[in-house]
Each structure stands twice: as C-alpha cells, then as structure tokens.
Backbone:
C-alpha cells in the first residue's frame, strides 16, 4: 500500500490545476454543472467550453493521441478528473460522445467509423445520444424491440427509444436494435449508428420533474443508415453495449468522489450560514449528526474509489468494490440534498441550486441501472447468490 | 373502543371521495399548477357550497358543527387528489386561528366564500398569500388581522405550484385580535396543533395515492418477462410504503380525535403524528418515483406533484425534528 503520488504525477496535477484555475468560466448560465439545462444558451455555453478544453489539450484524456485524445495514462486521467471536479468545471456538452460512443468506437469500430466520427465528437460538431432504453425495456434492457433489417446495403430501423438524454440537441445516436428476432434475447442485438437528421427519425422532448426537457423520445420509422454503421459484428451488439455501460458506470468514479466531496463542503457551509433556532443550523445536534454521517460516507466514497481504481492502475482486473460505486454515490446524493432542504426549511422551497439538486438527485437512483438493479448485480454477480426469479 | 369512523364520518368520507374524484382530475391540478397564481376558483366555490370551509366550526358561527375528525376526513381525501387552491390556507389555517381568537365576525366571510385568508408567521414564506383577501398575522405576542390593502404580496416561484409561498410586506397595523399564543406551539393543545393535524391528514391521503398508484404500476409493468411486483426488492418497498401509510393514518386520526375531545395528550399526539407523518410521506412519495423508473422522473406523470406537495408540507408545521423533540418533552409517562 502506498497512497502517494510520484513527483511527475504531482507536477501534472499542478499543471492541470493551474490551467483550470485560469480557464474555468465563472460567468456561465447559473445552475448545476452536471445536470443538463435545456436552454439553447446553456447548450452553446457548454459547446464553447468543450472547444476550449480541446484546444488546450484537456479533452478526451482517455483517448489515444492518434484519435485526437489526450493519450494520458490511467493515473493521469484519474488526476485530471479529480482536479476537474475540484475546479467545479462544467461538463463538456458532448459527454455521451466523449465517454460512451467514442471509447466504444476506438475499441470495436472500423477504421472508417473512427475517421468519420471521432473528430466531430471532440469538436462537438456532432452531438451524440444513447439509444438504449425503450418504453418496454429499461432495467430489462435486453428485452428491447426496436428492429433493424438489412435491406441491400442499408439498415432500416423501426421502433422507439425513450429517456434519451440530449435528444432535442442530438445529431447522431447509437442505437441498440434487434437484428435477429428468433435468437435468445441477449443474442440477436446489434449496435448501430444512425443519423438523427432524416425524415425517418422524429424526436419529441420530454419534460422532467425539474421542469426542463433534458431528455426525449426518439421514434424510428423506416429510418435508414448504411450497413457500414454497424459497430462490432451483426448480432453481437450486447457485448459491444456492455463495453459502453462499463465506461458509463465505472468511468469517472474518482471524479465523482471529488464532486460529492465538494458538495459536502457546500452543504457544511450552508449549515454554517443558515439561521436556525436562534443560532445556526450547524449548532443543531441532529443536523450535525446527519452532516457528520454524510461527511464520513463521502470520505469513504473516495477511499472505495481509490481501492477500486488501484488494480486497474496496475493492470489487474477490478475487484468487487468496483461494482458498488454507482449505488453508493447516488444514494448519498439523495440524502445529502434532502439534508440541504431540511436545513433551508421554507427558504428551500423557492427556485435555487439546492432545490434543483434535490429534484435532480431523484434521477440518479434510476439512470444507468436503478439502485435495485445495482443491488441485484452485487448480490448475484459479486456474491454469487442465485438469480432472483428472472430470465 | 372503536377506532373506526362512525356512520356520519363514513358518509362524509365517501361523499368527499366521490366529489373530489369527479372534480379534481390531474388536469385540474395541473392547470392550477401552471396558472399565474395557483388558484382553482371553480373548485373552491363548490367546496364552499358543500360547507367544507366550516366543517369543524360551531353552528352558532355559521359552520357545520362537526369537529376536527370530520375535517381530517375531508383533508385526507383532498390529499389523495392533490387538490389545489386556498382551502388549506383558509380552512385549515385561518379559520381555526380566528375561531380560537374569538374573532367571530371575521369567520363568517371565510365560510361563505366571500373572503379567503391565510396566516403569517414568517412574512418571507406565507402559504398562498397571493390568493388571500385577509391575513392573520403573528406579530410577536400579539395576533392581528390585516386586510389585503394593508399588505403588499410578492408572489415567489415555489416548488409546488398548487401550494405556493409568497412574501408579504406588512404596511398597516390592522386590527388587534389579542394574544398570539394560540398560533404558537405550547405544552397544551392550541389552534396551531389543529392546523398540524389537518396537514397530517392531508399527508395520509397523499401517501395513499402514492401507495395505490405504485402497487397498481408494479402489477402492470413488466420487466424480465414478468410484472416487476414479482421481485422481492419491489415487494418489500411496497410493504414499507404500506406500513408508513397505515401508521400515519393511525397517527393523524388519533391526533384529530384527541384534539376534538380535548384530551390531555392532544398536543403530544399532534407532535407524535407530525414527527412520523412528515418523514413517512417523504419516503413514500420518493419511493413512488423510484418504483416507476424513468416515467417517475417526468413532468407528465403525477408522482412529482405529490412529491412536491410533500416537500412543501414537510416544513410548514415545524420540522419533524422539532416534533420529535416536543414529543419527548410532552411524553405523558415521563
Ligand atoms: C434522467 C434520466 C436520463 C436517462 N438517459 C438515458 C439515455 O440517455 N439513454 C437511455 O438509453 N436511457 C436513459 N435513461 C433510462 C434509464 O436507463 C432507465 O430509466 C432505467 O434503466 C430504468 O428503466 P425503466 O425506466 O424502464 O424502469 P423499469 O425497468 O420499469 O423499473 C421500474 C422499477 O422496477 C424496478 N425493477 C425492475 N426490475 C427489477 C428487478 N429485477 N429487481 C428489482 N427491482 C426491479 C426498478 O428498480 C424500478 O424501481 C435515463 C433515465 C433518466 C431518469
């Protein structure tokens, strides 16, 4: 065990920190840095920010340099993500492209796909959406029904995706489609890239409980895409999709730890500055206990994450602690924002950062696999308990 | 010993249920939510005609002459529909306040619907002030009555568009109504306890809606080739929702009963109810969203309307922490 960073790593951290201090915009649209606000203004703000990052060489640190990425080692990525979260830098607008489809193409894509798409992901000239969930396939993703049929040298896609983040702004979508209706459900699925600007693709925004339209429905009616837009082999899309999901669930766990550590600091400051029973909220023993518990848990989120990353940093397979992250942080997030609301009392009921976080937190225990599904994974895959009555 | 509602109460309950299921669709709630002021005047008018504004008010003051239990019965049904409008601020806050202050002449116009009112504890956050024509103000040790022309109301964006908090600037002195004691929690039951009990009854209705809606959904919604209600993780959450809802019902109705009968433990019972219901309702409506998955996070589904009402209600009668503390203090066996 050695929890120190080398002098080179420390130097890299300092370099990143300095750059972020000088460049993170402080004049962006108000609100949360992670959740997507649906205004054109906020979208363009984040697109510009992504380009700034790209020009400075601080974008796609995890992509090899030959594809325009940072080509950084895993250690450097971890350091970068930590500093990024510490600086409260806004998320680049094309997150699904940078973090999900980009790495998937780098692993499974053809040369043509790589040269066609990767650059525009980096420049945010093409915004990507993730077309996995359907009205009748969420937790049970493999139950998806959207069909793609190979007609000549094109796929013809019919069906519907839903809860598609960024759909109202999307240019391209990676779609999981059923290409062999007779195969067992995890087989017979293909991973296909599709242009959203065509008559066969219709997007309808869906309003979230926060009031903004962060996601939408995507309807495919004889939508067309060249056969060359298939990623991986035909009917092997489930395996390709699982690569993407791995990036999504595991990707930036240390950055997440830092992000919530800094929310903890804000929460504490809120308790210290909010008047309560003639003193301040921080003086209330009940609030102190809750704050203390959240503090302990957020510190342990960091240590869990460091442990989870360690085997990967040294070229070994992940251990069981790597599957706990999503469940752990999302449930923490819900409780932390509830405490913020309790501290604020009636003042919290008006529009504000904490109210947005409090409502938004409710999504975090649902997306990328609900808390129940995360617990099933821990019970069945990590602990090896028998599968609970599903097929 | 009989905890069941009596025949009159059951009749009132089913009348309220029928009326509200006809009158308060999700469309009605949403149109109030999206309206400039959160009002629902048609609905309010009908509630006045039914005599609901004065359910627990003596006939001598123009009321129906029932008591807190009957009003709780109606509040529960209102909660079930997430009913909008100033019924809560008027019938559950202002009316009990004025009755307890002996301001009989001010009660009449509230019962016949010619005026609507609210109570001001903190001028920064006044429940539905934007819909009120009159205000009971807690001004230190004194209570006052102010007409609309003696205040400036600034509407503020509020998480629940059907129960808003506005800020109020008090310009006039108004009419002094005597000591404000009835509007502040003490060791014995006061008007403010009644208000808390009504709020708990509303929360019971909210929880019942969330429970019914969720149970129906997990029976219908399929994943992995079967209804999601098959999974014990889902079943156990529903079972916990049931325990929270039914226990809240016991708590809220006991409090209303104790207040109605003037039992010595009425104040204690109110804090027991508030401490339990405020947290239970938050949990139940939160689980309702969770068990709906993606659709639960949409504006289109009603789950958020109830969740937001609870978010508001949770802080109105004092926090759950406050009521736990008070329950410990008032513990009759101490
Ligand atoms: C803000 C947000 C953004 C999203 N963005 C995207 C996106 O960009 N692209 C995309 O493809 N999807 C996206 N999603 C969809 C998300 O992945 C799904 O909502 C999620 O997987 C749940 O699926 P569902 O909504 O169909 O719920 P269901 O699967 O119907 O689940 C309903 C309830 O049943 C429970 N349940 C289901 N199966 C089991 C089981 N076996 N055991 C125990 N409990 C179970 C669930 O935990 C949940 O509580 C997004 C969702 C949200 C809320």
Residues:
């Amino acid at each position: 065990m050695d929890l120190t960073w080398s002098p080179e790593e420390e130097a890299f951290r300092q370099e990143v920190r300095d750059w972020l201090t000088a460049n993170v915009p402080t004049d962006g649209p108000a609100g949360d840095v992670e959740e997507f606000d649906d205004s054109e203004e906020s979208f363009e703000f984040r697109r510009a920010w992504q380009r700034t990052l790209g020009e400075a060489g601080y974008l796609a640190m995890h992509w090899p340099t030959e594809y325009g990425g940072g080509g950084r080692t895993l250690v450097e990525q971890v350091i970068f993500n930590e500093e990024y979260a510490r600086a409260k830098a806004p998320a680049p607008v094309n997150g699904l492209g940078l973090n999900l489809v980009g790495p998937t193409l780098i692993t499974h894509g053809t040369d043509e796909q790589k040269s066609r798409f990767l650059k525009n992901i980096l420049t945010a000239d093409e915004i990507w959406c993730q077309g996995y969930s359907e009205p009748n396939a969420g937790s049970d993703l493999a139950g998806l029904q959207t069909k793609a049929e190979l007609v000549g040298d094109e796929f013809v896609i019919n069906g519907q995706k839903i809860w598609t983040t960024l759909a109202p702004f999307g240019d391209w979508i990676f779609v999981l489609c059923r290409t062999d209706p007779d195969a067992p459900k995890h087989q017979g699925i293909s991973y296909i890239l599709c242009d959203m600007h065509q008559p066969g693709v219709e997007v309808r925004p869906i309003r979230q409980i926060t009031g903004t339209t962060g996601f939408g429905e995507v309807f495919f009616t004889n939508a067309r895409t060249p056969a060359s837009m298939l990623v991986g082999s035909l009917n092997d899309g489930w395996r390709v999709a699982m690569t993407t999901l791995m990036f999504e669930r595991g990707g930036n766990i240390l950055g997440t730890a830092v992000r919530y550590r800094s929310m903890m600091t804000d929460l504490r400051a809120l308790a210290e500055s909010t008047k309560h029973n003639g003193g301040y909220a921080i003086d209330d023993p009940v609030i102190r206990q809750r704050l203390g518990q959240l503090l302990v848990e957020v510190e342990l989120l960091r240590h869990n994450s460091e442990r989870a990353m360690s085997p990967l940093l040294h070229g070994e397979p992940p251990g069981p602690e790597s599957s706990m992250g999503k469940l752990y942080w999302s449930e923490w997030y819900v409780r932390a924002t509830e405490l913020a609301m309790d501290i604020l009392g009636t003042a919290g009921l008006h529009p504000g950062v904490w109210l947005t976080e409090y409502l938004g937190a409710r999504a975090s225990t649902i997306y990328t696999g609900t808390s129940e599904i995360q617990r099933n994974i821990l019970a069945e895959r990590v602990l090896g308990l028998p599968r609970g009555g599903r097929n | 010993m009989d905890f069941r509602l009596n025949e009159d109460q059951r009749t009132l309950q089913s009348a309220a249920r029928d009326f509200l299921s006809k009158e308060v669709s999700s469309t009605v709630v949403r149109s109030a939510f999206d309206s400039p002021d959160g009002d629902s005047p048609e609905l309010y008018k009908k509630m006045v005609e039914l005599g609901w504004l004065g359910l627990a008010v003596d006939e001598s003051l123009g009321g129906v002459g029932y008591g807190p239990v009957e009003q709780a019965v109606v509040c529960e049904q209102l909660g079930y529909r997430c009913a909008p409008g100033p019924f809560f601020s008027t019938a559950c806050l202002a009316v009990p306040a004025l009755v307890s202050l002996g301001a009989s002449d001010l009660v009449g116009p509230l019962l016949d619907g010619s005026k609507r009112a609210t109570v001001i504890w903190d001028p920064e956050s006044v429940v539905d002030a934007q819909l009120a024509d009159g205000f009971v103000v807690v001004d230190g040790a004194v209570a006052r009555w102010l007409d609309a022309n003696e205040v400036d109301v600034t509407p503020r964006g509020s998480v629940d568009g059907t129960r808003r908090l506005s800020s109020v600037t008090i310009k006039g002195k108004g009419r002094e109504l005597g000591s404000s004691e009835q509007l502040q929690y003490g060791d014995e039951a006061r008007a403010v306890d009644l208000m808390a009990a009504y709020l708990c009854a509303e929360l019971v209705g909210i929880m019942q809606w969330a429970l019914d809606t969720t149970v129906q959904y997990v029976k219908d919604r399929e994943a992995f080739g079967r209804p999601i209600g098959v999974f014990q993780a889902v079943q156990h959450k529903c079972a916990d929702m049931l325990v929270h809802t039914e226990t809240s019902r016991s708590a809220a109705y006991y409090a209303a009963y104790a207040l109605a009968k003037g039992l010595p433990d009425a104040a204690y019972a109110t804090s027991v109810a508030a401490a339990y219901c405020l947290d239970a309702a938050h949990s139940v409506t939160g689980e309702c969203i969770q068990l709906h998955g993606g659709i639960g996070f949409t504006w289109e589904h009603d789950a958020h309307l109830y969740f937001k009402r609870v978010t508001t209600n949770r802080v109105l009668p004092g926090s759950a922490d406050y009521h736990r503390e008070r329950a410990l203090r008032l513990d009759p066996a101490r």
In short: The interface with chain A takes residues 122, 124-125, 156-160, 165, 222-226, 228, 230-234, 282, 286, 289-290, 293-294, 296-300, 303-304, 307, 311-312, 315-316, 319, 321 of chain B (CB under 8 Å). The domain at 190-330 of chain B is CATH 1.20.140.10 (Butyryl-CoA Dehydrogenase, subunit A; domain 3).
